[in-house]
Amino acid sequence: MSEKPPVDDERHAAKMAKKKAARDKIMATKTDEKGLIVVHTGKGKGKSTAAFGMIFRCIAHGMPCAVVQFIKGGMATGERSLIQDRFSDLCEFHAMGEGFTWETQDRARDIEMAQAAWEKARELIRDPKHRMVLLDEINIALRYDYLDIDEVVTFLVEEKPAMTHVVLTGRNAKDELLEIADLATEMELLKHPFRSGVKAQIGVEF
Amino acid sequence: MSEKPPVDDERHAAKMAKKKAARDKIMATKTDEKGLIVVHTGKGKGKSTAAFGMIFRCIAHGMPCAVVQFIKGGMATGERSLIQDRFSDLCEFHAMGEGFTWETQDRARDIEMAQAAWEKARELIRDPKHRMVLLDEINIALRYDYLDIDEVVTFLVEEKPAMTHVVLTGRNAKDELLEIADLATEMELLKHPFRSGVKAQIGVEF
Predict the structure, then answer these.
(1) Where is each Cob(I)alamin adenosyltransferase N-terminal domain found (chains A, B) (predicted)?
(2) How many CB pairs under 8 A join A and B?
(3) Is residue A133 within 8 Å of A124, Cβ to Cβ?
């Protein structure tokens, strides 16, 4: 812990009152609303899971949204079935990839897929009815140069509707993308069960 | 990028084939199924969002699950309404806290709430029908010693049913908890829109 916890109630109350005052003061300065460019990267778990959590949050609020999967399309995920079965009215779901690239071993085909997914992504983002668009695992397509980072960055900066949130996930996010991101989180792996011989499990990994 | 991307198709195919072989070999050794102790910590975004994403994943697979909110109960979240309105048959939701501690400034009351939430958590975890139980923001209750870390760790190690996944979230996860975790992720903040005067927004923050 970075800080010692309080030892008695008075000190705690005083500390918390100070915290609240500071927080209220800060929050009062936060007045803008804008569509954010959100990036989830890093080698840890939770990049796509947190992004899909944001999509479910939008669905919960009745906000039209959309998902384009750049890489994981070949894997059936719980999120995909839940969205397609229950919430297709609010959330468009496009699984464009065909599994991880190391499953296909065909670069030309991967590039074709990534380009088609990006075409769909642009169409969805340009439609201002979408309050959030998730580009799942796009960082992998960018990392292998299946997509041109400058083209993606330029599109997001110049053509994304002001109020639309765009969430981009995947390891090895490019610096050019992080530079234009409003909110970027790195998921860092501290511990992983595979290391102790546990396999990927329903509900946890997919 | 930690590694240069491949420059031509042959090298790419060879590299990916090698990757796939290595991955298949590793995955073949992963045969165990067990209930995991999963921790999401760190100062970044996505700790609770990814945990709720896992809950929605369980719901998608028809796996009974449960959520206990230790701190955020006072905040209406999209996840909460979506689960309570649409999936109460599969997921029990208990919002036990009453907002962040710095909103209450009453340590005795916070401790009482945390203890009641922990009581409910134990009851839900002991019931083997729950495939996953999310203890949202429990790390904050542990950090301020509203709950005894040794009691929590001992319970998880000795009483958690073998196949039940328990997900614990919040900043400043205690070392004792990380030691028994099967899967631990630190969400690290790279960039945050509050810094540029943007307020918390529906769909993104809540």
Answers:
(1) 7-27
(2) 275
(3) yes
| CATH code of the domain containing B109 | 3.40.50.300
Q: What is the pLDDT of residue A1?
A: 40
Are A134 and A3 contacting, i.e. CB atoms less than 8 angstroms apart?
no
Contact: B181, A191; criterion CB under 8 Å: yes
Sort out which chain B residues have CB atoms less than 8 A from A174's CB and list them: 1
pLDDT tens-digit profile of A38-59? Answer: 999 999 889 999 999 999 999 9
Q: Is A103 part of the contact surface with chain B (CB cutoff 8 Å)?
A: yes
Dist CA B16 CA B14 (whole Å): 5
Tokens 């919960």 label which residue? A60
List residues bridging with A40 in a β-sheet.
Answer: A169, A185
- Partner residue facing B1 (CB), from A36, A108, A172: A172
Domain membership of residue B16 (yes or no) is no
Domain count, chain A: 1
| ipTM greater than cut 0.85 | no
Can you give the residue range of the structural domain that contains A62?
Answer: 35-187
B169: in domain: yes
For residues A130-155, average pLDDT: 95
Burial of A46 (0-12, 13-18, 19+ CB in 10 A): buried
Tell me the β-bridge partners of A22.
none
